Amino acid sequence: MKKFQYKLITLVTALTLMTTFSCSEYLDAPLENQILAEGTDYSQSQNMVLLLNGAYAELYGFQWETFPLISVRGDDANPAGDQEPLFKTDTYDYDRSFWIYNSTWLNMYSDIIYWNGAIEEIQKYQEAGASASKASQYIAEIQVMKGYNLLQLARLWNNILIPESSDPNALYDVELTPYNGVMQYISDLMDQAMPSLPNVHPNQRSDIRGGVTRYTALAIKALANLEMENYQGAADATGAIIESGEFMLETDYYQLFKIPGKLNNENILEFQYSDYGAESGTSDRFPWQVYGPQAIGWQPAVPGSSGGWGFWEPTEKYVKFMLDRNDRKRLTTTVLFTPDGISDIESDPDYANLPNWVTNITPDGDTFGNAPRYKFLSGKHYLPTTQLTPGRFNYGENKNMIAIRYAEILLVHAEALVSGASSSAMSADEAVNAVRSRANLGMLSGVTLDEVLDEKFAEFGMEWGVRFFDLVRHDRTSELNYGGRTFQEGDRFLPYPLDQQDILPQLKEASNQ
């Protein structure tokens, strides 16, 4: 987990303030950020970009536990492994003392505190004569990152704190902002950022390829308005992205989530990692081992390639849903089968005769055998061992993590339209059928909300909790009652982490109401 720390740039070197705090103590003492700030020569304007680079490092550096907590409660994903409170979270039995709740809270808030400080420092460079346009752009990019984290925090915890300074002690005096207020804040923040952002596809940026652009801000604005059920606002934002002509769906859905999919024309927000094409040395990588197979039964096509923890698996419900649709391309991309998983499906008389393309051997020759922790694994978190840089053997190394794709923009656009919005950019039928065409499925006419949500279920299995957020937003939570689970009113949001309630009185007060 991230230790809470504050970073500042001085001269040409990125320095880290070495004051760190345990997860439960990070608000107990002020951060001594003035020490470095007072030693910075702000006339050296060429160093301002280091603050932006550090901001991206924070965005890409979230810890392994954050994604599972965001994504675990939908009917597309199951936890696996040894974290019993995560299994309970998946069944809506929440333990406020579970370390992953506290760690995820800290991971995201430490980013936001850092980003606030980076903005403060950039403003000082600007006051000392640095380019106003560059300073405005860097601040706008960081605002988009902040908006993304706030979106995830609110989706998890409902009413949250919105820090506006780099001093974590200031959180003592921040009032909780209600859910819709957070979403409106994000929407307004994206409006504020957009005029200063590059008006290009992220992969067309010449300075930071794959970095934040106006379209990243529009996408986050759309998601925030969707959560507010401001469907016209969501349609307007997604419509602007569609009308730009900058994005297109990748025809090869399988490779989209592999090395060929890095900085793809479909990707709007992408966390970037690299081994720099070298067989050894520095490697910045996402913790893909969380989603990799246990050593038992793992037969990689490239001998010596490592597996992982086996902490994450698609649900049998999702597999059957995709089989019923004959949704082969997306199912074989999203789900990695084991022999036991195939046998479990076939034990149901309705699925006794599975097609021969349901196999535990991937198109790239990696074999997934039986293991104690899972029956299936996530194909979207899988990188073929044949795509590893020669000499590298870590599971998934050099693979990026896609956060927002154009397919989501199309289907959010359709969701907004069938929920009452209007748009001249594209009809709901056109948006849904564009995604279905890529999946080699037939075209629909007069699409309904149920059909849009089904398409999102198929398209975003194992991705960022999309399914869970869709179902609770539209009060279709009966779909979450499967495999012995019972979703009840009040299960939408997690309790505030106990460690944070002990530190921040406003959280404890809200929890006791």
Automatic annotation (TrEMBL):
Q: Where in the cell is it found?
A: Cell outer membrane
Please state what the protein is called: RagB/SusD family nutrient uptake outer membrane protein
Q: Which organism is it from?
A: Echinicola soli
SUPFAM superfamilies under this entry?
TPR-like (SSF48452)
- CC per GO annotation: cell outer membrane
InterPro entries reported for this sequence: SusD_RagB_dom (IPR012944), TPR-like_helical_dom_sf (IPR011990)
Where does the RagB/SusD domain lie?
296-487
Q: Which family does the UniProt entry place this protein in?
A: Belongs to the SusD family.
